[in-house]
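Structure in, sequence out. Go:
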């Protein structure tokens, strides 16, 4: 079994900062990539930031220069540092991992339960 546990969400004022973390645990052989997605009511879930096993990163245009994704490979953990937060950043943020389990040849994608981020004055 694989589990992704997220933390760090909450209420913050515009211009503030939050740091999200996501730890993957369980039957994991290799993680190919991890990322953060977000979703608001009535809208499609969108990629916020992603990072591959090789260290390559990509960001949504709306968060470039404000958000930073990083990882701790030894702990199978990914972080999202969010600075200069705006009200439009309000959403449920989901952690995702593309990984291979022991004794499997194919990779699967797993999702965290989601954590609420609210940016409001």
């Amino acid at each position: 079994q694989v589990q992704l546990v997220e933390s760090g969400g909450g209420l913050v004022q515009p211009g503030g900062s939050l740091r999200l973390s996501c730890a993957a645990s369980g039957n994991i052989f290799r993680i190919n990539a991890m990322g953060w997605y977000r979703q608001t009511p009535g809208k499609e879930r969108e990629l916020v930031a992603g990072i591959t096993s090789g260290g390559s990163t990509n960001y949504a245009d709306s968060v470039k220069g404000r958000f930073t994704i990083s990882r701790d490979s030894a702990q199978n953990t990914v972080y999202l540092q969010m600075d200069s937060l705006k009200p439009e950043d309000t959403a449920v943020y989901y952690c995702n991992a593309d990984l291979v389990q022991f004794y499997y040849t194919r990779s699967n994608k797993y999702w965290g339960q989601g954590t609420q981020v609210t940016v409001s004055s």
